[in-house]
From TrEMBL:
Origin species: Synechocystis salina LEGE 00031
Binding of NADP(+), residues: 13-16, 41-42, 160-161, 316
Positions annotated as active site in the UniProt record: 130 (acyl-thioester intermediate), 243 (proton acceptor)
Family stated for the protein in its record: Belongs to the aspartate-semialdehyde dehydrogenase family.
Enzyme class, spelled out: oxidoreductase
Pathway: Amino-acid biosynthesis; L-threonine biosynthesis; L-threonine from L-aspartate: step 2/5; Amino-acid biosynthesis; L-methionine biosynthesis via de novo pathway; L-homoserine from L-aspartate: step 2/3; Amino-acid biosynthesis; L-lysine biosynthesis via DAP pathway; (S)-tetrahydrodipicolinate from L-aspartate: step 2/4
Name of protein: Aspartate-semialdehyde dehydrogenase
Length: 338
């Protein structure tokens, strides 16, 4: 058994933070001590963990003393603010923000794809973007058989990607619309209930939004394949939790559909969900709360002899964020890389 370690959760009261807490308990993570850290507005609150009420501590310069590992999910500015304090204290930070993902010396890790990259950390390991993780786990088994040359992906991203408050906002908007009232948007830029809109991250100079460019850049880094051509269109949809993606893959030669199904069915972290007679394929409602990424509707691209299409759904808070972070932590403990 690995030796228990001292863990802090930075951003413990958020949607991902509370999921991290649940996963540490359900997966029997070897804990010697657990600190819950958040902003001053959470001071005095408690969160339950394995039957105990743990106090929320306000994060400050001394918060990371006596920590071996910090699971950070409080946003990029917070991660940048405290990264040096964390590493100086001798702890490893697994960061769920975008702050360090594309820094060359920071490993960007999905344990089912590139676990060995975690060994080379210099105190910080980045957790990829949710849509990148979900797609990567689903398509990497195929890339191992025959390198993917091009990816065209459209995402259908739930409110959970914008946090717990966005999920509550969609609920309130739905009630207002059904009551004949005008829905109000405060967390997201536009009403999402009974609506959808292109992803609300900032537009870059090439007219792709930041979320789309994350998928492009992060997938190449995780796969160690800068040559893959990738284009993405990211859309926010009125689903509370779990993202969906329509993915088109192009290979150098034809990729048999049956081989793709077999590879995905055997791969870790994914589950093949297909019932062609009932037209039943992965749905967000089924993926919610699940560890596995659900993959189905795998079919030959009729427009290209070397193309495959597939559909996937995955829990954005779980595998798209908290679970991947905990799996990285487990990897560090099991292999002695802390």
């Amino acid at each position: 058994m690995p030796s228990p370690i001292r863990v802090a959760i930075l951003g413990a009261t958020g949607a991902v933070g509370t999921e991290l807490l649940e996963l540490l308990a359900s997966r029997n993570f070897p804990l010697a001590d657990l600190k819950l850290l958040a902003s001053p507005r959470s001071a005095g609150k408690t969160l339950e963990f394995q039957g105990e009420k743990l106090p929320i501590q306000v994060v400050d310069g001394s918060a990371f003393k006596d920590c071996d590992l910090v699971l950070a999910s409080a946003g990029g500015s917070t991660s940048k603010r405290w990264a040096e304090e964390i590493t100086k204290a001798g702890a490893v930070m697994v960061d769920n923000s975008s702050a360090f993902r594309m820094v060359p010396e920071v490993p960007l890790v999905v344990p089912e794809i590139n676990p060995e990259a975690a060994q080379n950390h210099q105190g910080i390991i980045a957790n990829p973007n949710c849509t990148t993780i979900l797609m990567g786990v689903a398509i990497y088994p195929l890339h191992q058989i025959q390198p993917i040359q091009r990816i065209v992906v459209a995402t259908y991203q739930s409110a959970s990607g914008a946090g717990a408050m966005a999920m509550e906002e969609v609920k309130h908007q739905s009630r207002d619309i059904l009551a004949g009232k005008t829905p109000q948007a405060e967390i997201l830029p536009y009403p999402l209930a009974f609506n959808l809109f292109p992803h609300n991250s900032p537009i870059t100079d090439n007219h792709y939004c930041e979320e789309e460019m994350k998928m492009v850049q992060e997938t190449r880094k995780i796969f160690a394949a800068e040559e893959i051509r990738i284009t993405a269109t990211c859309v926010r949809v009125p689903v509370l939790r779990a993202h969906s993606e329509a993915v088109n893959l192009e290979f150098a030669t034809p990729f048999p559909v049956d081989l793709a199904k077999t590879a995905i069915a055997k791969a870790p972290g994914v589950k093949l969900v297909e019932d062609w007679q009932k037209n039943y394929f992965p749905m967000p409602i089924d993926a919610t709360g699940q560890d596995d990424v659900l993959v189905g509707r795998i079919r030959q691209d009729i427009s290209h002899p070397n193309g495959l299409d597939l559909w996937l759904c995955g829990d954005q808070i779980r595998k798209g964020a908290a679970l991947n972070a905990v799996q990285i932590a487990e990897l560090l403990v099991e292999r002695g890389w802390l």
